[in-house]
Write a structure and sequence with these properties.
With 284 residues, this protein is mainly α. Helix content is 69%, strand content 0%.
């Protein structure tokens, strides 16, 4: 089977696309539940600090309870949980109560499948593909969690840093020396921006999760890819932020999460960073 897949990259890419759809379905669970799990943990910690006994709650994690309609509690069956296809068959509504199921669920599944296929096509069958898939899947989860909550959970960003360094022990994406410097510089760049902005305005310009996310991207791709990541994330973030204020009348006092744009910049650096850097340097 392995030699056959090596000889047929299109088939391998298709299989990884299907895998990505399944992972995308799981990422929807992570995006929805992880912030709630964090909130429950914080409430328990606050209760302990007040000297109270935390209330015993039903188990709630990424595996328990089973997925259900938030409106009527109807348990999602296996046939109703097929990525994209089930949403289309159900016409975007719960089979029990008819409440609308958000379009973002199939969007996350399709985006995960598409980016997974792009990884498989670019790197083929090998450990590079495994590593790039881990990076891409985590960036997708972080993007939508940050959109929803303006949080970038340490339970995702910190393991992503260490996993990037682990893969680069053999230099799969960058020499280990460059990866370590990338993690350090990635953190310190946004940390410096944060404190300069805070000293100048007295306000917080971004969260610490952004520092850790850029550190993770540096750990995976090396310090050379940080300029590409920062450039694209800043340009896109500024453009969307201005458009939201001008056209959507977004309150300028309400923070706009920067994590999704960092993740987007990291994806651009992952797929095209080396080519973009070489094209830029060729001008000189």
């Amino acid at each position: 089977m392995m030699p056959f897949l090596l000889a047929e990259p299109a088939l391998f890419t298709g299989l990884v696309f299907l895998l990505g759809l399944l992972v995308g379905s799981f990422l929807n669970v992570v995006i929805h539940r992880l912030p709630k799990m964090m909130e429950t943990e914080w409430q328990a910690q606050c209760a302990e600090l007040r000297g109270e006994v935390p209330e015993t709650a039903a188990a709630y994690n990424l595996a328990t309870p089973r997925s259900a309609c938030p409106a009527c509690g109807h348990g999602i069956t296996a046939l109703e949980n097929i990525p994209i296809l089930s949403w289309l068959v159900l016409r975007g509504r719960c089979s029990a109560c008819g409440v609308v199921i958000g379009k973002r669920y199939p969007l996350v599944e399709f985006l995960t499948g598409l980016l997974s296929a792009a990884v498989a096509w670019k790197w083929g069958m090998g450990l590079e593909t495994l590593g790039a898939l881990c990076l891409v899947w985590t960036l997708i989860a972080l993007t939508f969690i940050d959109f929803d909550t303006t949080l970038l959970p340490d339970s995702l960003t910190l393991p992503l840093i260490w996993l990037g360094l682990l893969f680069n022990l053999n230099g799969y994406f960058a020499p280990l020396h460059d990866a370590v410097i990338g993690a350090i510089v990635g953190y310190l760049v946004l940390w410096s921006v944060y404190w300069l902005f805070k000293l100048a305005t007295g306000k917080d310009g971004m969260g610490y999760g952004d520092f850790k996310l850029l550190a993770a991207i540096g750990a995976w791709l090396g310090w050379q890819m940080l300029p590409v990541t920062i450039l694209f994330s800043s340009v896109v973030g500024a453009a969307i932020g201005i458009a939201m204020v001008v056209f959507v009348k977004h309150d300028s006092r309400v923070p706009i999460p920067f994590g999704p744009y960092l993740a987007g910049g990291g994806l651009i650096a992952l797929f095209f960073g080396a080519d973009l850097t070489q094209a830029y340097l060729a001008q000189f």
